[in-house]
C-alpha cells in the first residue's frame, strides 16, 4: 500500500511540475495596433511569435512569401513538439505502473538519455534560446527521471536507490548550471553521442529478446515524430549545424525503434532470453 501511495505521489508531483514549468508571459502593457484587421486576441500572440514583419506579410497582406511561411510552420511545429513533450512519456509511466514491471526497459538507455536531456536543457537556457526550440526537453527530463526511479524501484532489491537516483540527477543539474560557458559548450557537443548511444542498448535489448517488452508504442512514435520535426525547426530558426546533425541522427535511431515495434509487435521475450536485458544490455 505504501508503495502505491509513494508512486502516485511521484506521478502527481511530476504533473504539477510540468504545469508550473509552462512558459507564461504576462504583459502589463496591453497595447494593440488598431490597424490590424484581426482581433487582438489573435494578432497580439502572433506578432510576438512571428514578429511584426512576418505577421503583417502573412495575415495582413496575405502574402505567403517563403521565409515567413517557413517560420510559421517552424513555430507551429515547435509549439506542437513542446506540448507533445509534456505528455509523450506519460503512457510509458502508466504502462510500468499498470504492470508493476519494467521488463524490457534498459536502465542504461534511460540514464544516458536523461543526462543528455539535462545538458540540452541547460545549454539552451544559458543561451536564452526561444522556449519553442527546446521546451519539450524540460518535460521529457522530468518524465525520464520518474521512469528511471520506477525502473530502479521494480528491479532492485534496495528501494532506497531510487531516491539516490533522484539526488544524482539534481546534482547533475546544479553542476551544469555552475560550470563555465566554455565547458558547457564542450558538454553540449559531447551529449550528442551520449544521446545517440542511449538508444543503442534499447535497440540491442529488443533485438536479443525479439520483443519490445513494456516499451510504449505512443512514446516511441512520438520520439520519432518529435526528433524529425525538431530537425526542421532547428534548420529553420537556429544556425547550429551540430544541433541539426544530432537531431537528424536521433530521428534515424528512433526510426529503428519504430521498425522494431512493427517487427516484434505483441511478441513476448523467450524464456531463454528473459534476463538478457539486465545482464547484457545494461
TrEMBL record:
GO terms for cellular component: membrane. Keywords: Membrane, Repeat, Signal, Transmembrane, Transmembrane helix, Transport. SMART domains: CTNS. It is a multi-pass membrane protein. Its main location: membrane. Residues 1-21 form the signal peptide. InterPro entries: MannP-dilichol_defect-1, PQ-loop_rpt. It comes from the Eukaryota. Pfam families: PQ-loop. It is found in: Membrane. The chain crosses the membrane at residues 77-97, 137-155, 167-190, 242-265. Gene3D superfamilies: 1.20.1280.290. PANTHER family: MANNOSE-P-DOLICHOL UTILIZATION DEFECT 1 LEC35 -RELATED, MANNOSE-P-DOLICHOL UTILIZATION DEFECT 1 PROTEIN. Belongs to the MPDU1 (TC 2.A.43.3) family. This is Mannose-P-dolichol utilization defect 1 protein homolog.
Amino acid at each position: 500500500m505504501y508503495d502505491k501511495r509513494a508512486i502516485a505521489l511521484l506521478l502527481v508531483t511530476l504533473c504539477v511540475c510540468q504545469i508550473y514549468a509552462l512558459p507564461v508571459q504576462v504583459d502589463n502593457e496591453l497595447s494593440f495596433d488598431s490597424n490590424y484587421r484581426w482581433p487582438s486576441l489573435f494578432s497580439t500572440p502572433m506578432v510576438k511569435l512571428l514578429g511584426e514583419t512576418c505577421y503583417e506579410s502573412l495575415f495582413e497582406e496575405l502574402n505567403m512569401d517563403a521565409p515567413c511561411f517557413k517560420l510559421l510552420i517552424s513555430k507551429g511545429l515547435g509549439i506542437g513538439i513542446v506540448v507533445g513533450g509534456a505528455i509523450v512519456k506519460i503512457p510509458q509511466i502508466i504502462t510500468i505502473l499498470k504492470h508493476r514491471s519494467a521488463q524490457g526497459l534498459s536502465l542504461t538507455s534511460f540514464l544516458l538519455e536523461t543526462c543528455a536531456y539535462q545538458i540540452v536543457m541547460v545549454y539552451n537556457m544559458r543561451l536564452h534560446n526561444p522556449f519553442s526550440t527546446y521546451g519539450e526537453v524540460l518535460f521529457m527530463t522530468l518524465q525520464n527521471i520518474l521512469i528511471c526511479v520506477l525502473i530502479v524501484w521494480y528491479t532492485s532489491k534496495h528501494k532506497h536507490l531510487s531516491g539516490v537516483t533522484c539526488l544524482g540527477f539534481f546534482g547533475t543539474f546544479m553542476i551544469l548550471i555552475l560550470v563555465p560557458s566554455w565547458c558547457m559548450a564542450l558538454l553540449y557537443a559531447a551529449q550528442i553521442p551520449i544521446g545517440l548511444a542511449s538508444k543503442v542498448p534499447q535497440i540491442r535489448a529488443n533485438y536479443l529478446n525479439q520483443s519490445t517488452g513494456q516499451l510504449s508504442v505512443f512514446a516511441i512514435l512520438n520520439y520519432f515524430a518529435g526528433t524529425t520535426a525538431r530537425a526542421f525547426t532547428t534548420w529553420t530558426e537556429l544556425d547550429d549545424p551540430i544541433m541539426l546533425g544530432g537531431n537528424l541522427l536521433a530521428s534515424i535511431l528512433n526510426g529503428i525503434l519504430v521498425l522494431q515495434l512493427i517487427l516484434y509487435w505483441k511478441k513476448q521475450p523467450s524464456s531463454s532470453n528473459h534476463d538478457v536485458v539486465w545482464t547484457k544490455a545494461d
